[in-house]
Amino acid sequence: MSADNGVYILKTKEGQYRVITAQAIDNLNWSFIHFREERYVPTRLLEYFGNCKYTYNRDTALNIAQNIYNHLPICEYGIQTFSINRTWNRIKHDSIDYARQEIKSLEALSDRTQYDDEITKLKEILKYLTVWQTRYNDLKNEIMKKG
To answer: How do residues 41-83 score in pLDDT, each as one tens digit?
Structure first.
């Protein structure tokens, strides 16, 4: 039986590094809209990397990753880095519409009960993102008024 785990560093367009340890990282590309893998699934990025601290220093990210790796009893895939050509704020913006589409797709299934946990998780993400977007827009408007 494989561990199917690793230490993963996400590097965003603005140079933000987010470090996690996770299993089944291939789920990062899984879409509930089409029930297949896609190249960019913003809601999965939030699920995996949304609750971790971040740094703009590459060496700090590598040190954090190495420390996590050193404390794992087994690490099948080692330390991996993913770069994405999106800022973290863009990923959050993209996730709003994507989460809505995924919820709609899952709720349309005839046997949707097997996806209740995923629907709940997506609704929680959408709630968080709605609050975030309101604060983001308020701050943006405040800056524009001062500018």
So the answer is: 999 999 999 999 999 999 999 999 999 999 999 999 999 999 9
**H or E stretch including 69?**
helix 58-70
DSSP string, 76-129: SS-EEEEE-SS-HHHHHHHHHHHHHHHHHHHHTSTTGGGGHHHHHHHHHHHHHH
The residue to which tokens 């080692």 are assigned = 78
What is the rounded distance in angstroms from the CA atom of residue 19 to the CA atom of residue 137? Answer: 28
User: What's the CA gap between 87 and 68, in Å, rounded?
Assistant: 25
Domain boundaries in the chain? 5-146
CB-based contact 75:8 (threshold 8 Å): no
- Please state, in angstroms and rounded to a whole number, the distance separating the CA atoms of residues 65 and 115: 32
